[in-house]
Amino acid sequence: MSTTPGGPNGPEYLDSTGPAMPAPANDNKKRLVALGALVVGGAVVAGGAWAATSFFSTGAQPAEALPASTIAYASVDLDPSGGQKIEAIKTLRKFPAFTDEINLDTDDDLRERLFEEITKSGECEGLDYADDVKPWLGSRAAIAAIDLGEEEPTAVGVVQVTDAGKADDGMANLVETCGGTTDGEAGGWVVDGDWMVVAETEELAQKVVDATDKGTLAADSAFGEWTGEAGDDGFMSFYVSKEAAKYVGDLAASPLGMAASPLTGGSSTSGSGSFDEECFADATTAEEMDACFTTDDSTSADPGSDAGSEEIPPELQQMINDFDGAAATVRFNDGSVEIEYAMSNYQKDLTKFLTSEEGVDMVSDLPEDTVAAFGFSLGDGWAQGLLDYVKTLAPDEAATIDDQLAQFETETGLSFPEDVETLLGEGVTVSVGSGIDPDAIANGGPQEIPVGIKIKGDAGDIQAVLDKISAIAGPEAEQYLQVSEGDGYAVLALSDDYRGTLESDSGLGGSDVYSQVIDGDAQTVLFVNFDADDDWLVRLTKDEPELSKNLEPLSSFGVSGWVDGDVVHGMLKLTTN
């Protein structure tokens, strides 16, 4: 067990009133950039930088080295299993920029490449990866925020080690080689079994180890539930616990949170106080940040005092209470990149209007050669529900909102929510079709653009609302605000040809390119087919050859969203040719 500074790129510490501010730099800390980046944050950041080369393999995970009181967690594997790693690198090698800039082979040690990037500036001259790091550095790492019963959560990093004794000696060697001191000024660590815990001090690191002995994050039922909801394992994993909402509440109630909150109409210059930007720039703690806000009764709030504090609106507090957790995973699967997430459905008053599959069915019925489409459904009463929701977030502004709506109705002749709900019906799709011709658009105008909207609703009622809008917008817009009826839908389009296509053609939902990126449970979708319309994106970027070559491997992209009871799900998926 040893104590060592972690450098300015060591763990950041969460703050109940705002983002953590870096400690003042000095030469000693600057020389420890490599150390902090390598053993804590760098390991996780590398997961993003080298994203396409990593997968979780079986074996011990960082969640086993963290306590059940962990409130936020992000992990990465830097040495994934061989078969999946090969698949990922083969996919990335389709992109010339990857080969030119990274040139990573399937048998490369990702940890060594990261080490080379971190130390190439010469900050740790004489340090050798094979001799000084590889003998003890494992393949998995995580950063986490932990509730240790303090006023603020404790930020730590955990790194897998393959030899506890060599890891402790190796860290000491890193400190010495990188010019560090042993006074514990900037950080400390504890090696416990197969893991190294790095924190602001050795004492904090030991507290994390002791807390883990009483129960691990990996064994926590909520962690298992939410990571399970996020689907199969991937090369990066994220988790936020229910308890994390407490700190969101603390932020909202702080002067910083209330000053910036859109729910309270706050700003850095509004209200009965003021905000000292120079003071805030120099602040390094939550108390110092609070002191940068002044009120009518004082020129500066004393650190730790309640001056300038605000109560959380009860409606916002209820949403905080209703939040149960969230998790996300980034993975490769059959040559595609996926980001899947699941989160607590803490906004049921809003999401209840989005649970129909009407919008997705409409997208499925679009022409098979569709370039891009967005579709969603809307339940009865959605507009009034949205208005009520906004008012609950800003109850003090409810009267103002009503006044503004009344003025809007007077000036436009539109009725809210009736006309808005009629206009968008039960579901809407916005789509772009094939036939994109930049020259024709430049010469012929908007009517050459194959863009259209389909609305599930009565075409006559929708046209009546559009006529009100046309009266305001003028004759130039009127020609684009005429609907036609196609198979139970109201159709608008800039191009007459594309209008006819939308009225009659279908088949997108049955195509492989669509089903590969859209989840079968989707209730809201965004879809892009890069192969459609003769590789439309490659054509549009032909004047930029380097960019065009790197876009050519793209096949399709999809975003799916759906609500399942108490859980909101989402999936982003990108495929390549």
From TrEMBL:
Residues 1-25 are annotated as: Disordered. It comes from the Bacteria. InterPro entries: DUF3352. This is DUF3352 domain-containing protein. Keywords: Membrane, Transmembrane, Transmembrane helix. Pfam families: DUF3352. The chain crosses the membrane at residues 32-52.
